[in-house]
């Protein structure tokens, strides 16, 4: 287990401290400083975070509720092992929701097109020299692209469920943007999807969207396996 210890801070309100610990641990999981299967105790985290066990416990139980950790009452905590079958199911739910959103958007009259699509057009249908190259920022914008498509369809429960699914797969989905070619392809694919929606070519838009998501899913699976292997190899000297 590898964690980044935060800099010492002045006295914080308990709720702020719990939030800070939660965010730090979540980032450690997302950045593979805490690896799937790693075990640790509340005391270890409290020492590293220079905090009491109460805010640490609050942060840990929040991460457990979100599905990132498991608690063993006699032997501490564990980062949940990767369950690729679960991620496959989440991606399937995401595809169903997004395809339905595209269908609803394409069925709208031109004069009823949501402003969100114009915002997306200004972000993604740009010249190559206007494209961002920062993978982390493009990852954030990519998630926002897909969420805005569903939000624009107008069903709040669909949007809420889609946002929850997007949060759960973010840990692996963002890895797609560690590869420079994937950043460029994302711009091109998003532009084609938007072009088809704006032209009301529903079947084409749905096919482009489904292919875009499935290719990304395959890429992040490969990258995740590679990064897990690399992280394990880096951790070996520290454990020896």
From TrEMBL:
Transmembrane segment boundaries:
none
An example of a Pfam family matching this protein is FCD
- Report which superkingdom the organism of origin falls in: Bacteria
Q: Which SUPFAM superfamilies match?
A: GntR ligand-binding domain-like, Winged helix' DNA-binding domain
Classification from the root reads: Bacteria, Pseudomonadati, Pseudomonadota, Gammaproteobacteria, Pseudomonadales
Q: GO MF terms on file? A: DNA binding; DNA-binding transcription factor activity
Give the source species. Answer: Ectopseudomonas composti
- Tell me what this protein is called: GntR family transcriptional regulator
Q: For this UniProt record, give its keywords in alphabetical order, as a comma-separated list.
A: DNA-binding, Transcription, Transcription regulation
SMART domains xrefs: FCD (SM00895), HTH_GNTR (SM00345)
Q: Where is the HTH gntR-type domain?
A: 15-82
């Amino acid at each position: 287990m590898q964690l980044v210890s935060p800099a010492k801070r002045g006295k914080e309100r308990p709720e702020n401290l719990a939030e800070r610990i939660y965010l730090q641990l979540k980032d450690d999981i997302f950045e593979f400083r805490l690896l799937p299967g790693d075990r640790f105790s509340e005391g270890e985290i409290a020492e590293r975070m220079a905090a009491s066990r109460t805010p640490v416990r609050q942060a840990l139980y929040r991460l457990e509720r979100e599905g990132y950790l498991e608690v063993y009452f006699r032997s501490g905590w564990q980062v949940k092992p990767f369950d690729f079958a679960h991620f496959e199911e989440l991606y399937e739910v995401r595809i169903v929701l997004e395809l339905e959103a595209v269908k609803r958007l394409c069925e709208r009259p031109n004069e009823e097109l949501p402003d969100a699509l114009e915002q997306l057009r200004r972000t993604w249908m740009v010249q190559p020299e206007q494209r961002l190259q920062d993978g982390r920022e493009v990852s954030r914008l990519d998630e926002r692209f897909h969420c805005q498509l569903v939000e624009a369809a107008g069903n709040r429960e669909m949007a809420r469920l889609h946002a929850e699914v997007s949060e759960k797969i973010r840990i692996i989905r963002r890895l797609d943007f560690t590869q420079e070619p994937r950043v460029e392809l994302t711009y091109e694919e998003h532009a084609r999807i938007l072009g088809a929606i704006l032209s009301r070519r529903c079947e084409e838009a749905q096919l482009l969207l489904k292919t875009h998501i499935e290719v990304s899913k395959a890429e992040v699976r490969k990258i995740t396996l590679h990064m897990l292997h690399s992280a394990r190899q880096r951790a070996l000297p520290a454990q020896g």
